[in-house]
Amino acid sequence: MTPEMFVNKYNLHDSIIDSVETESNGTVIRMVIDFAFWMQEGYKEEHAETGPLAVCFSGVTEYECTDQFSLEETSILKVFIQDDSIIFALLNDMTDEYYEIRIKAQDITAVDQTEQE
What we know:
Blueprint: H1 3-9, E1 16-23, E2 28-36, E3 50-58, E4 62-65, E5 74-82, E6 85-92, E7 98-104, E8 107-112
Antiparallel strand pairs: 1-2, 2-3, 3-8, 4-7, 5-6, 6-7
């Protein structure tokens, strides 16, 4: 899906990025998000409230972080599109420090990993 489709489909507020890995000379980024399924439109009670969402960004031409930071205690405030890039606005819940991850990618796939357990 396109970055715009991803932002419109998933409400990532208060979800937590568990890991970020780059592959293929930086053209692929894999992210695992501790995802708040209960905040999604169409959520059904029989589904887990939270769980891993595996997100793969492919055709990456830009990947930047505002600072070196730990993902520990850092939650997603919002995700938005700016200049054809997807921006993850993050907040460290302990220090109130703000960070951004910027990714420009051609395609994004997201897989609910609770369905694979």
